[in-house]
Design brief:
single chain, eight-stranded antiparallel sheet, mainly beta, 7% helix, seven-stranded antiparallel sheet
């Protein structure tokens, strides 16, 4: 009869486990061999382990985070179809975690998820501690929404100021120009000067065109701004571009979800038709550029200013289609606009208004578009030097050369004996700065000797912006941009020009510049190969960035398409009537946060009736078809059997403004796996049904100790030992014993720490 103690002995070379070797796998060596008599049997007399309080995460474990209006029965938002946002999947890396590790893993997973620029990498998870017992009682999930961004178009932005390298090719035509030896040959289609804020075009199209009969899509090389700190800030974020210096060609200015021209030419995969197909030739079509929202000016004739968005439509027969939708800002029904004339703005209209640029304004999930009235008109001049060599006469409304960003000023001039004796202001123009010089057209008054000097003394203040797209009390779909949703909550500016040396100015771009946004990344592509015309082949796959769109993009686009069909954002055409219905927006209401945005965690499967549209019954997470709702971490995260943790029920009592929290109601369900003692050096003949094989398992370690504990230092002693025959016909001489503590799959458990002790009782087999 023998009593054998096996333990993970202290080892001065092993420090990762407090000075002990692995508590789940250890071997003891004996100086004098252990002698086991013939026909003996063995049993576990007792086990001592130190089990860590760990959570176990499997590949199938997941939950979702939603940030938007809470759905409340009987109010505006009742189900997922009423809101533009969808919950975002959160995946914690597979493994076993103690409390601190699990807290960090949850935080890391949430911050890596595509929660949009408001929350990206800006959330926290902390322990909740009972004030009386000082024991852990759950988790607090803290969501801090960012506020107003910084204008990176100014030199005050420091290291975040816009520079030329932040401007990236946005369509195949721009890529082709850069690479084609006959065109740019390494020169980009656009160049940006951070001093003058000018984005200049290096390309001229001989025959400017607009794609399609409706002239809805501009054809030209396109450039986008991928600021390394991320997209435009959604809280009162602005992108202002000055167009008053575009003299020779057309222009198009818009906003787009992050894309890459090397994947489907930048077009989302839910657009099933070839974005480079239909109408015109292949070269023309390669100049298409995807934008979600845009405004464009066509110089042809008297000029025209039109506004567009890309939207989904559904016919009365249920046929879906994606394409450009024109917003007729000039119609009388657009009561939120400031230009109601029945016709589009012409060149003369723009000059009369003194419009110098466009402003995209992000107010929560509403996108507004305004004309910037430049003001900055010349109001007073000084004739410093009348010059010499001019043609005598009296001239009225003489044009002047552009001065800096100023243009359009005209003069009344009198020339006597070759000298300008009188110069008065006829028209003030726009875009001027004090100190600019006015040079009259030499084709009118003669070439002169270049010694003329007319200085700008004073300029007018900027005028009031003119709303073109701004809902106010008019939320009709036909006059408003689609609410920003998961796919469009990360927007970047896109510009197209088609005449060499035309330029626009970048006057304002709001971006978040905090340190956490430095981890933002844009999508790219696995294949950047070019065709014979130096255009991207568009093959391979997309490499996702930090935005929801690129992380859910795939060759079929099912998830994108499914979410884009939400009634809340669909630009529907029913029975041939465009823009039926209204949009519902969530605005900042004059604050630095979206007032009705709160967090919700989807922890379990929401009830679903197969005969009811998901948009009419699911609250927060609608999967793409066939995916299913696999949220299953309610108990792990401390919310018990609740399928959703809504802010109105689980929110913190001290939440205020842009800071909102969700507090769990319990410590969470620690995972305690079955554990077994396996002796590897004894001829044990047991059988493991889980692996369908012979085993050396000798003992099942209970889940709970005698005092009801599952974690910490635990001691188990068998009141009735189960002996297993060794079936040894001869005496055994054992010089070592190897012990493993394994799960039912015979793999080592990973939730042990400190010292493990297994005591064996070996005796002659009882008959």
């Amino acid at each position: 009869m023998s009593y054998v103690v096996v333990c993970n002995a202290e080892n001065e070379d092993t420090f990762s486990n407090g000075g002990f070797s692995d508590p789940a796998s250890f071997t003891n060596f004996y100086k004098s061999p252990l002698q086991i008599e013939p026909d003996s049997e063995v049993a576990v007399e007792s086990v001592k382990i130190d089990r860590a309080d760990k959570w176990s995460v499997k590949d199938t474990d997941t939950f979702f985070v939603y940030y938007g209006p809470e759905q409340i029965s009987g109010e505006t938002y009742e189900d997922s179809g009423d809101v533009p946002k969808n919950a975002v999947r959160i995946k914690i890396a597979k493994g076993a975690y103690n409390k601190d590790q699990f807290t960090a893993a949850i935080k890391r997973a949430i911050n890596k998820a595509p929660l949009g620029p408001l929350l990206f990498n800006n959330c926290d998870v902390v322990d909740l501690v009972d004030e009386t017992s000082n024991k852990f009682k759950g988790f607090q999930f803290k969501f801090t929404s960012r506020g107003t961004g910084e204008n990176v178009a100014t030199d005050e932005a420091g290291t975040n100021e816009l520079v030329n390298s932040m401007f990236q090719d946005a369509n195949p035509s721009a890529v082709s120009f850069r690479n084609d030896p006959a065109q740019g040959n390494g020169t980009p289609a656009y160049s940006y000067d951070p001093v003058s804020k000018r984005l200049a075009c290096n390309v001229t199209k001989a025959n400017p065109k607009f794609f399609g009969n409706t002239r809805s899509r501009f054809l030209a090389p396109a450039i986008k701004i991928n600021h390394p700190q991320g997209p435009i800030a959604p809280i009162n974020g602005e992108f202002i571009a000055g167009f008053h210096s575009v003299k020779g060609g057309d222009w198009c200015i818009g906003l787009s979800r992050p894309t890459t021209p090397y994947w489907r030419s930048g077009f989302p995969s839910f657009i099933t038709t070839n974005p480079n197909g239909g109408g015109g030739n292949a070269a023309d079509n390669s100049e298409l550029c995807y934008m979600d929202y845009w405004i464009q000016y066509k110089r042809e004739g008297s000029g025209s200013l039109r506004i567009w968005q890309w939207g989904g439509t559904t016919s009365a027969a249920g046929v879906e289609n994606w394409g450009p939708k024109e917003l007729k800002y000039f119609e009388a029904g657009n009561t939120g606009g400031g230009h109601i004339t029945g016709t589009v703005l012409t060149r003369a209209d723009i000059n009369t208004l003194g419009a110098t640029g466009v402003k995209f304004l992000l107010d929560g999930d509403e996108l507004k578009l305004r004309l910037v009235v430049g003001g900055s008109a010349v109001t007073a001049i000084t004739l410093v030097n009348g010059g010499t060599g001019y043609d005598d006469g009296t001239y009225t409304n003489v044009p002047t050369a552009d001065s800096g960003l100023g243009r359009g000023a005209t003069l009344d001039i009198t020339v006597n004996a070759g000298v300008i004796t009188v110069a008065t202001l006829h028209q003030g123009g726009f875009g001027y700065q004090s100190g600019d010089a006015l040079i009259p057209a030499t084709t009118v008054i003669g070439a002169g000797n270049g010694d003329l000097e007319i200085a700008v003394n004073t300029i007018s203040s900027s005028g009031a912006d003119i709303n073109l797209i701004s809902a106010g009390s008019n939320t009709l779909k036909k006059y408003n941009y689609i609410p920003l949703h998961n796919g469009t909550e990360a927007l970047v500016p896109v510009v197209q020009l088609n005449h060499f040396d035309d330029f626009i100015t970048i006057d304002h771009l709001s971006v978040y510049t905090d340190a956490n946004m430095s981890k933002w990344k844009y999508p790219s592509a696995t294949n950047t190969s070019l065709d014979a015309l130096y255009r991207p082949l568009g093959i391979g796959t997309i490499i996702s960035g930090s935005d929801w769109y690129s992380q859910n993009e795939d060759v079929t686009g099912n998830k994108l398409n499914f979410n884009a069909r939400r009634p809340s954002i669909a630009y529907q055409i029913v029975g041939g009537i465009g823009g039926a219905g209204s949009f519902i927006y969530s605005n900042t209401d004059g604050t630095s946060y979206i007032s009705n945005y709160v967090p919700v965690m989807v922890l379990g499967e929401e009830d679903r009736d197969p005969d009811v549209s998901d948009y009419d019954q699911i609250l927060y997470y609608i999967p793409d078809p066939g995916e299913g709702n696999y949220a299953n971490m309610g108990r792990n995260l401390g919310f018990g059997s609740f399928s959703t943790a809504v802010w109105s029920q689980f929110g913190g009592s001290e939440d205020d403004g842009n800071i909102t929290t969700l507090n769990s109601i319990e410590a969470g369900a620690f995972t305690v796996h079955s554990a077994f003692v396996r002796i590897n050096d004894l001829p044990i003949q047991s059988f493991n049904g889980a692996t369908s094989s012979r085993s050396n398992i000798l003992y099942h370690i209970p889940r709970f100790s005698s005092d009801g504990r599952s974690f910490g230092e635990l001691f188990f002693q068998s009141p009735e030992k189960t002996y297993i025959a060794l079936n040894n016909t001869d005496k055994l001489m054992i010089s070592q014993l190897a012990v493993d503590i394994v799960g039912r799959n015979e793999r080592l458990v990973n939730d042990l720490q400190g010292a493990s002790i297994v005591c064996l009782h070996i005796r002659p087999r009882k008959k």
